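hey
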């Protein structure tokens, strides 16, 4: 696999860091997951689970090795640095300054391992007035403006249902790690990545910033092409109370549907772009969609050259034949379901290792791999390091 031979030490918890290292593990990297003693990664205990593991945990940590060290002890910190000497990538998600206080900041780790790619993944990054502010995804999205445009039927901001800043940061972090590894092949030296969840959320907005950058104003979501201001990029209710979407505003799709439905006079309104002037088109389409059930519309649109899709619930989504064909839902020997691998190589494809580590299961194994003797391990245990 593409990352065979790459060793990763991941100290991050919850979503962004574990997702970054999970993708690497799926493509051959050896990922050592360092967890605090006691409860370990909080993801182990969030939501429903089976066979001793939460769904949350198993879809972010499969195939990893779990090491549990008490980093409040000198011996635990020393063990961490000895592991760090052997890794290619070091991921941490503490608040800025915490790693330095504990003795494993970038400068310290680099002294032990000049080739290391050191990733600091935080809410707001290592600089700026918010660097020390505690935050998870929701606060980062709120400050990035994405919550303001995620409106409910009442026109008020609604809870974002996808953790954009978490997974945007993980994706940016993965890209940065791979760039740094590529560059290291030429220079022999590592690098430090400062990844901010807030930065990452902002970076995912290039298609909606026209009013912001040109007219220096906040957009009106209901009038913008991405958020329902265009009749052909919008959600519609069906006769059975379910929903469908039209998802393509190219004028050829507009002509195809409005001509077939006997309203070519409405095409000109769509040619003018998104905005309140498209309300007659929206009203017409809503009226038509309310005449059939979602299932009937799925049959009707099949084979027609219009961007159309039913709104599926998550169970339906993972049962979809496209998902099965692309192996984005995997089932292990226990019948447990897993998210598949979205990066698909023709050569050296990734592989999901469904093995899930018990908390601290690989502590002694990993410490032996970096040179600890039986006597040293006994001393570590006696000191409370693990």
């Amino acid at each position: 696999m593409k990352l065979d031979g790459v060793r990763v030490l991941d100290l991050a918890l919850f979503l962004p860091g574990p997702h970054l290292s999970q993708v690497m593990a799926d493509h051959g990297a050896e990922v050592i997951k360092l967890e605090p003693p006691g409860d370990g990664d909080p993801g182990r205990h969030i939501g429903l689970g089976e066979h001793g593991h939460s769904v949350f945990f198993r879809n972010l940590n499969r195939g990893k090795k779990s090491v549990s060290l008490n980093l409040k002890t000198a011996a635990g910190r020393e063990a961490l640095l000895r592991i760090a000497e052997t890794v290619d990538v070091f991921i941490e998600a503490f608040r800025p300054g915490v790693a330095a206080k504990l003795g494993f900041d970038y400068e310290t780790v680099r002294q032990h391992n000049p080739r290391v790619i050191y990733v600091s993944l935080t809410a707001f990054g290592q600089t700026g007035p918010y660097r020390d502010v505690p935050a998870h995804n929701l606060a980062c999205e709120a400050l990035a403006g994405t919550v303001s445009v995620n409106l409910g039927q009442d026109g008020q901001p609604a809870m974002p249902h996808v953790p954009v800043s978490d997974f945007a940061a993980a994706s940016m972090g993965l890209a940065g790690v791979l760039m740094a590894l590529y560059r290291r092949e030429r220079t022999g030296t590592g690098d430090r990545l400062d990844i901010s969840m807030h930065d990452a959320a902002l970076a995912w907005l290039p298609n909606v910033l026209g009013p912001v950058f040109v007219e220096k104003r906040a957009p009106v979501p209901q009038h913008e092409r991405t958020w329902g201001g265009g009749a052909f990029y919008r959600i519609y209710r069906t006769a059975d109370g379910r929903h469908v979407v039209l998802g393509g505003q190219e004028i050829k799709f507009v002509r195809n549907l409005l001509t077939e439905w006997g309203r070519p006079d409405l095409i000109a309104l769509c040619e003018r772009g998104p905005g309140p002037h498209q309300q007659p088109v929206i009203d017409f389409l809503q009226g038509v969609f309310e005449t059939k059930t979602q299932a009937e519309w799925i049959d009707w649109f099949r084979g027609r050259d219009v961007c159309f899709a039913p709104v599926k619930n998550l169970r339906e989504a993972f049962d979809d034949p496209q998902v099965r064909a692309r192996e984005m839902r995997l089932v292990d020997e226990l019948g447990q379901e897993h998210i598949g691998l979205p990066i698909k190589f023709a050569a050296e494809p990734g592989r999901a290792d469904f093995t899930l580590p018990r908390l601290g299961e690989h502590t002694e194994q990993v410490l032996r791999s970096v040179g600890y003797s039986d006597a040293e391990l006994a001393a570590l245990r006696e000191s409370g390091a693990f």
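Residues 233-306 form a domain with the formyl-coa transferase, domain 3 fold (CATH 3.30.1540). The radius of gyration is 25 Å.
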